[in-house]
Amino acid sequence: MRDLNLVSAPRFTLADEGRAVFVPAERIAVSTGALTWDGSRRIAAYGTVLEQVSELRSRASQLTFRLAPDVSVFRKVVWTLSYTFARARAEQSGLDGSTFDSPTIRAWSRANTDVRHTIIASIGRDFGKFGSVSMFSRFMSGRPFTPMIASDVNGDGFANDRAFIFDPAVAGSTSTSSTAVDLQRLVAGASRNVRQCLERQLGRPAAANSCEGPWTTFLSAQVSVNPRVFGSRIGLHLTHLNVAIDNPLGGLDELLHGRNLRGWGNPTAPDPTLYRVRGFDASARRYEYQVNPRFGDTRPANTAIRAPFRVSVEARLNLSTPVAQQQVHRFLSAGRNGNPGKRLTVADLKRRYARCARS
Fold this sequence. Notes:
Largest sheet: 8 strands, antiparallel
Structural class: alpha+beta
Shape: elongated
Oligomer: single chain
Radius of gyration: 32 Å
Distance between the termini: 60 Å
Number of domains: 2
Helix content: 10-25%
Number of strands: 19
Strand content: 25-35%
Number of helices: 6
């Protein structure tokens, strides 16, 4: 994707980040850091003029190992276990993904869907005349995400700017030092994945998809009951009974923890916002940032993404006499007890049942 109305050269560069900005410094509000896009337009009367082109590339590969039992040994228990290692990389420009410098620069990075490790396990047990039970589980490593700024700071018209990870050891100005100290405080209390992501990028721009969320789990179960276990009379009418349980881990999480959910069985969506702009120092040509204390947070209370706990019961009930029983009664009643029709012999009944079986 290209913006045909974006000026080709930046107006200035931020002193502490080295970030190219495409609007003049006087077009940035000192009190809020908000900017006006017309300063970055070739023709000020128009906003963004986007040209959609298919010129970027991606690469993906995976290797899967799968184990399954010998059915001659495990006759009533069936299980499978698989592990997949995958890698996915994508080429992005600053308008298709995230940017730090010019939005026209293309770069390769981890793809948004680059889940490196996936483990899938399933098991089923046949209990003969009683029915069967099966379970399915999936364990996935975290999806990548990028430390971002909540608003547009380079003036290209898109709020997709990657954050600069300030290093407290080299921070110079008061505002930069304050941001670095807040960032250090965030790192100290963050999860291991978030802490490692930020520490290895101190003093430089955050790379695209350089952070990774936590592992996620999913579990489901299914119970199929043979209706005849409830007795022959019920079994004639109740022909199918199945109970499906989706995300029992989520239900257990809510049962044990109430409103303070741990996120068991739910997909994770880490908060990618590292900074919020709170002002602009025009003389020093640098933004003033506020560190988001919830960066990388995946707690369910801070996201609307849920995988609900659900129990589904499916039953099939015949309200009339079963079809097979009606068929037997029709065959045997002809010519008997005063009923019209020819009385069928044993040979006749065998031939009729044979025709029914073939049809």
